[in-house]
Predict the structure.
Amino acid sequence: MKLQILSASESREFSEMEKIVDSKVSIKGRESQWELWHALSRIMSGRLYREKHSSFYAYLRAKGIEQSRVSRGISALGVKYAIEEKLWLYDRESVRMIMSEHHLRELVGLDHDAMPEVVRVASQIAEGGKITAKNLKTARAKVSAPRAARRLSHRLDENGDSVPEVMAESFSARNALNELSDRIRAIAEELKAIASRPGGQFVPCEEILAGLGNISRALVLSGFGITCQECSGLGCTSCRNTGFHPKRRLRSE
Ligand SMILES: [Zn+2]
């Protein structure tokens, strides 16, 4: 693979992020190393490693950082951002209690809109005590089972408009597609962990992850987006008699 030159500002950012990585990476066993995960996620998403390394994995190997640890850390960081955005304003106390990586790992892959509910249920289970990772796990299982049914009772489309009864089945297929996509993302996480173990070195990780990412996206984008405005869900040529337009179409317009 050909290595590519960084721009001046990318170069600056890379050396800033590397300083953080070098200073934080050796502090092992600590629950939260958010600065480290943030710096690594910047290096990964901006491909700031590309001047010296052929891939993010090659960069981690050169640094002697365990891939599975990074993938867990960056996943937890994503959840942390989502929690802060969704919950911080009205439930500071719970947020403070669950802000360790150990806790947030239990919420990886969860629909961000469901997070406040899961945390609320977890705090009920904790009965006023400290919320544990186990509480979150139990709460997540409780919340996600009846969720599909509840979503049907107030169905909103991609534009936030309510979905007519005639579209109920198509809308529930959308939820099934999203759940399938979540499972594929979970498989991707598992694969990353296996590939970083002895014996997994020959797994063509990047290739497979790119493939899984495409599948996961394709599933989400093919689900229900909005009710067809020309036929109000009854079926016409513009929606190919389906009554709706998939998310894919909304994105490409
Ligand atoms: Zn139509």
About this structure: The CA atoms of residues 230 and 236 lie 7 Å apart. The longest strand covers residues 224-227.
